[in-house]
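From the thread on structure requests for the teaching lab: each student submitted one protein with a one-line request. Submission from student K.M.:

"Model Zinc-type alcohol dehydrogenase-like protein from Stappia taiwanensis, C-alpha cells only."
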Amino acid sequence: MKAIALTRYLPIDDPEALLDVDLPRPQPQGRDLLVAVKAVAVNPVDTKIRAPKDAVEEAPRVLGWDASGVVEAVGPDVTLFQPGDAVFYAGDLTRPGSNQQFQLVDERIVGHKPKSLSHAEAAALPLTSITAYEAFFHRLGIDRDGADAGQTLLIIGGAGGVGSIGIQLAKRAGLTVLATASRPETIAWVKELGADHVINHREPMVEQVRALGIEHVDHIAIFNDMRHWAEAVELIRPQGGIVSIDDTDLPMPMELMKTKAASLHWELMFTRAMFQTPDMIEQHRLLCFIADQIDRGFLRTTLDTELSPINAANLREAHRRIERGTAKGKIAISGFDAA
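Reply posted by the TA:
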C-alpha cells in the first residue's frame, strides 16, 4: 500500500524529509478497525515530531493524526462499527499514523463521520475537536449543555485549529468567548466562528480585556504557547481554571495562582489511547457528539485549505505552511492517486 513516511528527521525543505514509500497492508486484531484512508489533516504535532534531530528510523515511520475514511475490515472484538462505515478519528501516538492507504485504529477512539461533510472537511476535525472538548468539558469542568451559560472564556490562540473548533463549542455551551487573533484575516475568521470579543495577543492583553469592562475571566484556554502565562494568571478569576496544551521550558510563576486558589490543567488528547485508560471510549462518544452537532448545523468544519492528492510533496507543503505559523483553521489533503 502507498504511504508517506520518514527515516530521518530533516528540515521540511529537504526533499527527503517525507518520502513516498510502499508498505505492507496491516491486519486488524482485537478491537482494531482497518480503515481505508480517504483524507488526512496536518497538525503542529506532526511538525514537532518530524523536527530535525539526529535519530534515524530503521523502518519507515508514518506520521499523521487526523483522518477520515471507510472501515475496510474489523478485528474479532469490534462491536461499534462494521465494514462500510464512514469514520473519522485522530489516532494514537504509539501506533503508525494516518498518512497511509490503510490504517489500524482502536474503535474506542473513532467516531462516525459527519454525513454532511466531505472526507476532507471531516478530517480537519478530530484532533482539534477532541482537544478542545476535553479541555473545556473534562479538564475545566464547564457544562457542555449550557448550565454555565454566561461565564467568560478567554481562548489564547483563537484562529488555530483547536481554537477554531473551541470557539464554536464554547458558544454552543452558552459562554461569552474572548478569542485572540492579530492579523486582519484571523480576526475576521474568529469573528465568523462566533467570538464575542477579539483580543490582539501581540499587544498587552490585560488592558484590552479590562477595557471591555471585564476584570477577570472565569476560564482560560492556552491553545498556542506559554508566552502569555503571566497575563493569563493576572486575568483568571479567583478559583478559576487555566488549561494548556503546550509543554514549555518558560518560567511559570505560581505565587498568584496559589493566592487566587486557581487551578492549572494539562490537556493531551493522546493520553487516553497511550495509556489505555478505562474511559478511553469517551473519545468515541465525543466524536459522535461532534458529528451530530455538525449534521444538525450547530457546528461547522474548520477546514481552510485542501490539497490533493495524499503524497509526500503535498504533506511537505502542509508541514511548511504550519511551520510558518500563519495558517488559520486546518489544512487537509485528500485522495491517493489511483496509479
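TA comment: The chain has a mean pLDDT of 96. Residues 10 and 295 are 40 Å apart (CA to CA).
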